Amino acid sequence: MTYKNFTIETDANGIATITWDMADKSMNVIDLSVMEDLDRLVDDVANDDAIKGAVITSGKAAFSGGADLTMLEGLLQNFHKQKSKEPEAAARALFDGSRKLSLIYRKLETCGKPFVATLTGACMGGGTELALACHARVAADDDGFKMGLPEVKVGLFPGAGGTQRVMRMADGQQGMQFLLQGRTLRSKQAKSMKLVDEIVPPKKLVETAKKLLAAGVDPVKPWDKKGFKLPNGKVYSPAGFQFWPAANAIYRRETFDNYPGPRYLLHAVVEGLQLPMDLALQVESRYFAKVLQSPEASNMIRSLFVSMQELNKGARRPVDQRPNKIKKVGILGAGFMGAGIAYVSAQAGIDVVLIDRSQEAADKGKSYSEGLLAKAIHRGRSTEEQKEKLLSRINATTDYDALGDCDLVIEAVFEDREIKKTVTEQAEAAMKSRAIFASNTSTLPITSLAEASSRPKNFIGIHFFSPVDKMMLVEVIMGKKTSDRALAMALDYIKAIKKTPIVVNDSRGFYTSRVVMTYIREGLMMLADGVPAAMIENAGRMAGMPVGPLSLGDEVALDLAWKIVSATRKDLGVKYVEGPLDNILEEMVVKRERFGRKNGKGFYDYAGRDKKLWPGIPDVVGQPKPAESFNIDELQQRLLVMQALETARIFEEKCLTDVREADVGSILGFGFAPYSGGTLSYIDTMGTTEFVDLCKKFTRKWGPRFKPNKLLRDMAKTGDTFYGKFPPVVAVKDEAA
Ligand code: NAD
């Protein structure tokens, strides 16, 4: 009995220990070879009279990262190739292919011998589904333990029995939340949901699993016995009538029905719970195959799994640059951003010099980390010892000489050219000559900031998003003179702090800020068109944006938007076209001092955590027209089309050069409708010709800002897509999913 990815050893008591340890990967994942192995393993255990039961354990720190989604991508590609010629055969192949794992797990569940899974570290997706198919589960009592079914986050749902088993084991409400939100559970939560049976120290996992088997683990699952009762009772029952309509309402509230993954998940659960297990799994598989075929799932898998992984692994890193080990970073400005950057750096084990104008300000920046760590300790996610260790890495000071041995210095002082110039000069006087200097500016072109530098080759933009500890994206900006060495340093640093980088060329607002401003602007233009404010906000959320455009304007700060508009007007001179936007912002900021959330007054009034649309909006923009005069679908499209169009322009200007970065950056940076796969996937999915036609229609109806750019018009003529015309240049070899 030999397998590619597993070893099996049977002890004197007839308990087989099956160890999953993939030779060429740092994490166990489910790929075709693992499926082949598992299929055979179950037969071998079932047919070997010497084996009474089996423990499935991992030879690695974690149990499993889940299925390798590139496998599903391959299935889908075959489906799309075949479907025009032989639609039925194509659908059958997709259905059969995508349910193979589910059938193997069911075979394990019903083979007649008990299996116990021991779980450490991450247990995700298909790994969790394997554990649930086993007859008992022992989890490690360890801070690093997490169990989850995160498939909805990439547009899918758990399709290897996860939906059916969770809902037959856990309380209905907790189970639905776990499935629909794709959240991860710690060991105690998993136990209280009855998804694991025992929690023991990591070293005792296998021993405990064997003890369980020796004491007798039932090889027949409760749902395969007569008289099984669902934890929440039948779907068609008084309790069910209360529960399921509410579940559907919550689904719609959370997703606006934009996501086929959770939509079909609900179908699979409601229909599956009314059937015996084998049929229920068949229903789950049918909906899974349906979801797989949706453009939303393809786009989300591509952007949020494949592309994101490639970018994280350094797809844009210059290959000829030696890797940098970043030991120490300097941070200038210990304000909101500087303090956050200090925290994520120290968390990654990097020493930090945190500089501000006064010792008090520098200390305040350091205390931000203290606050975050205190919260983490309160939630059981950190310890006093870890806190002290992290804080000891941050040297809060006013002394620029402390920058002498930094590999990288990041400035996050006020958004003011002169101040940035002064600190650049001061820092460079103290830094070693090969160290890299980065600016965290949100809008000022890097090339012009680099003029203050005596070594512009070493000058680069590293643009973080707030709050730094939560936002996963970092936008790297290449100035005209920025060297590949500086880029490699920036990317190595971003990798060290475990964030996702995109690399863009210099321009005003770079990529993300520029597109975000068009979203806010479109919201203001709608106000000027007479659209009721609440309808604008709803249109934004219904389109899939995390917040409406007016809300985002308040968050970004209206006075900042006004500053940017004024600066652009000054730069463009006579070429600047005045519009209703200028009047609204001027009225809000200059005349009424409504700056947004930061002074508690913007398009919303803020009282504590609550916010309400400001009733005075009509005094600024005029009385709104009746909601019925506007088409809500068109308003949603306007908001998305405007952002996608701006992205296409930025792409044409070569500020963006990689389609993956446009898509990943738009979702992680500003939450662009994740179901679309990102700004360029949005255009590709609609079709370039249709997109251009829509832009032309909007130009006639709403103004020249919707005029499609030349690149788009040319692509529309030939029917090209962004991914077809500009395939990603570097494909990074996958090491571990
Ligand atoms: P902030 O006002 O909170 O912090 C700026 C800090 O710089 C203050 O603590 C100030 O005392 C310090 N400072 C000013 N002059 C200094 C000097 N000469 N030497 C040392 N320290 C000095 O501002 P912030 O929101 O943290 O923004 C900082 C930078 O980050 C700006 O360039 C901003 O555009 C950019 N940024 C901000 C955000 C955001 O959401 N706030 C997002 C991305 C980028």
Explain the layout of strands and helices.
Layout: E1 6-10, E2 15-20, E3 29-30, H1 32-47, E4 53-58, E5 66-67, H2 69-83, H3 87-109, E6 115-119, E7 122-124, H4 126-133, E8 136-140, E9 146-148, H5 162-169, H6 172-181, E10 184-185, H7 187-192, E11 198-200, H8 205-215, H9 238-255, H10 260-272, H11 277-292, H12 295-312, E12 328-332, H13 336-347, E13 351-355, H14 359-378, H15 384-392, E14 394-397, E15 408-411, H16 417-430, E16 436-439, H17 446-449, E17 459-464, E18 473-478, H18 484-496, E19 500-505, H19 512-529, H20 533-542, H21 549-556, H22 558-572, H23 580-591, E20 604-607, E21 610-613, H24 617-621, H25 632-652, H26 659-670, H27 679-686, H28 688-702, H29 710-718, H30 722-725
Parallel strand pairs: 2-4, 3-5, 4-6, 6-8, 7-9, 8-11, 12-13, 12-15, 13-14, 15-16, 16-17, 18-19
Antiparallel strand pairs: 1-2, 9-10, 17-18, 20-21
For the biggest sheet, the summary is: 8 strands, mixed
Helix proportion? 40-55%
In total, how many domains does the architecture comprise? 3
Highest CATH level, the class of the largest domain: Alpha Beta
Approximate strand percentage: 5-15%
The span between the termini is 27 Å
- The second-level CATH architecture of the largest domain is Alpha-Beta Complex
Radius of gyration: 28 Å
Give every kind of bound small molecule, once each: nicotinamide-adenine-dinucleotide
Order of strands across the main sheet: 14-13-12-15-16-17-18-19
DSSP summary: helix tally: 30
Number of strands: 21
**Apparent shape:** globular
Structural class: alpha/beta
Q: What number is the mean pLDDT?
A: 94
Tell me the CATH superfamily of the largest domain.
2-enoyl-CoA Hydratase, Chain A, domain 1
The CATH topology of the largest domain is 2-enoyl-CoA Hydratase, Chain A, domain 1
Show unreliable segments: 731-737
